[in-house]
Automatic annotation (TrEMBL):
Pfam families: CheW. InterPro entries: CheW-like_dom_sf, CheW-lke_dom. This is CheW-like domain-containing protein. One of its GO terms (biological process) is chemotaxis. It comes from Tectimicrobiota bacterium. Residues 33-155 form the CheW-like domain.
Length: 163
């Protein structure tokens, strides 16, 4: 993989939650996803996820969150990975899109972290095995590639989407 010679720059202020979706393909450098901390409502530990027969392939199932049903979206599958296993949800990140109050559960690995912005980074230009319309940005950090998924696009597609 060619490395950019562009110097690392700093991004804007705030905080992000970095996570790895379940069953995301292993890439070099390692890949992490991130959302603004303002989009994340809660992180649940090993919730029960019930399958929804007849639902779209991107929907793993449904769980109960704050006394209401919550759709569990297979982010790894949407982004080109293997389908996640419904029976193995170590963590569920409950997040909302930026333009709507719609919440969704995203199965993630337990190694989540919060990072303060600005982060030193370079713009990413590595080809990724996903539809470019499904993420807002790609950034190269010192030891990993950081991808910002577009929850608005994943939840409310304006045109046909792989999900």
């Amino acid at each position: 993989m060619p490395r950019s010679s562009a110097p690392l720059t700093r991004s804007t202020h705030g905080q992000i939650i970095c996570f790895r979706p379940l069953d995301l393909p292993t890439l070099t450098p390692p890949l992490m996803c991130a959302l603004s901390i303002s989009q994340v409502a809660q992180i649940l530990h090993a919730p029960v996820c019930l399958p929804l027969p007849g639902s779209a392939p991107a929907i793993l199932g449904i769980t109960l969150w704050q006394h209401s049903p919550l759709i569990v979206l297979d982010l790894a599958w949407c982004l080109g990975g293997s389908p996640a296993r419904v029976s193995a949800l170590p963590r569920l990140l409950v997040a909302r899109a930026t333009t709507t109050p719609t919440y969704v559960g995203l199965p993630v690995q337990p190694d989540l972290c919060i990072r303060s912005l600005p982060l030193p980074h370079r713009p990413g230009n590595q080809p990724l095995p996903w539809q470019a319309a499904l993420f807002r940005g790609q950034f190269v950090l010192e030891n990993e590639t950081l991808v910002i998924p577009d929850l608005d696009r994943l939840l409310l597609p304006q045109e046909p989407c792989v999900c």
